Amino acid sequence: MEAALLVLDVQNDFTNDNARMPVAKNQVMPMITCINNVIEKALKEKIHIIYIGNEFEKNQYISNWFRKNASLKGSEGAKLNEQLKIVGNLYFSKKQGNAFSNSSLVRYIADNHIKDVYVVGLFAEGCVLATVKGALQNDLTVTLIEDGIAGANDKKKNNALRKIERLGATIVSSSLLLK
């Protein structure tokens, strides 16, 4: 049975010091460090490593206004954070919270017989939650790596983790995976 690591939205406009729509600053470096360690483990285990990023169209005026023009397609802010370990070239863009809104990702998952997904990235209360729902709707087994997740603040992250657990995803610490 195949597995994939989904690395969600670790982009400049959410993680850098000058981010347009930042996650909680105290969560950024611990999250990136965790994700990089999990990527190393995934490489050793021959797990598919899939990067997913928001790439919003410039003509999405109203939603872009609410997002402070974060992660516009082709912008520096839409690029993956330079501290994130990048391996391979599996990258899928999205314009909605749920990564499974991209039919190319859904097809890749199906074509590669992936049944288990590990999820890391941000925002816990937004795209992570929506992607977990999407994965479960696609009959995938979902494991969320809690120290590889960030949110707008600690409270929102913790509330999202509780919701995700109630949906049926397993939540683990990376320390359990990195043995």
UniProtKB/TrEMBL annotation:
Domain Isochorismatase-like as annotated: residue spans: 3-174
Keyword Protease carried by entry: no
The UniProt record lists the keyword Hydrolase: yes
The entry's keywords: Hydrolase
Organism domain of life: Bacteria
Entry similarity comment: Belongs to the isochorismatase family.
Protein name: Nicotinamidase-related amidase
